[in-house]
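Researcher: We are triaging several targets before committing to wet-lab work. For this one, the compound of interest is pyridoxal-5'-phosphate. I'm pasting the protein sequence and the ligand SMILES. What I need is the predicted three-dimensional arrangement of the protein with the ligand bound, expressed as structure tokens, so it can go straight into our comparison scripts without reformatting.
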Amino acid sequence: MINFNVPPFTGKEYDYIKEAVDNQKICGDGPFTKKCNEWIENKTGTTKALLTTSCTHATELAALLADIKPGDEVIMPSYTFVSTADAFVLRGATAVFVDVRPDTMNIDETKIEDAITDKTRAIVPVHYAGVGCEMDVIMDIAKRHNLLVIEDAAQGIMSTYKGKALGAIGDFGCFSFHETKNFSMGEGGAILIQNEKYVENAEIFREKGTDRSKFFRGQVDKYRWQNYGSSYLPSDMNAAYLWAQLELADEITKARMDRWEQYRDRLSKLAAIGRIELPYIPEYCAHNAHMFYIKVKDLAERTELISFLRSNDILAVFHYVPLHSAPAGIKYGRFNGTDEYTTKESDRLVRLPMYYKLAAEQTDYICDKVIEFYNKR
Ligand SMILES: *Cc1c(COP(=O)(O)O)cnc(C)c1O
């Protein structure tokens, strides 16, 4: 059976977790967390990076820093994971959904401005498959309307837009280190903060509303309850697992990219004769091979393809059910404009197996089976 995903594992994870345990440093903000934070800062050029317990929590932290209040509106695509909306809905905001572009499946930047009202506070672009949204346009809209930009870069680590790291372009960026992402700590994430003025509050919200981070740096002699907050810092054992992959980030990315390009090359004939569509990468976007998807004719063909692949021991999956059509989306959100592509394109999309140690032979076998499926039709 070829799984859809296998969590990344390099081999060093055991040593680093043992080190954390042996040194009796397993709580939050230990040595491994610090190494990971610094690595992210150096890699992306962001002012401050802080590991969190998930990307969901990083986004919640961003919503707290953005001071999102009941009645506020936050603009995002409907074609995304629930966490993108959850973080803001939890603060009482309404999720205002905008259609996606069919080429990248990212938010259609030309439809954002029409969704802005006097209640709008933030725009949340989601970099689908690690391919950058049109950030120049989005940042310009945000500037003109005085809105914050919170990048859902859950899939975007190691990717760039016009040379800038995804997650480090907007006011805040959120990474995920869930086991399905390029680098993992089981469950985990990080918040990236561009403006120094938010750093102190971020530390307080992340540490149960206390100034404990300052206390540990010796800046105050006792720590106290300063504000409301939560506990968003992960155990250093999880950070130890992640560190083993950040150390080998280039190698992991290259291995994924090799498989991604293999898929693209082998399936390009099917695309050329119009049977399927392949992912589109704008020339100024460097991606991280987070995902390889194809688009088929329609929902019926997708269902048949997935079951054909399954009968050949290959697990391929579809992706998001658009949020505006889900029960909570109806309750807490609204779709602005018309759903021209969100539902139609999401129905056609199939994700093929993609993970760090996926072998070239396995990838060839998967491509053979996709081609066989279309030859028989
Ligand atoms: C994975 C993912 C998340 C959630 O990440 P967690 O770390 O599991 O909270 C949010 N948004 C997108 C687009 C994702 O792909």
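Researcher: Any quick observations?
Model: The CA atoms of residues 206 and 232 lie 5 Å apart.
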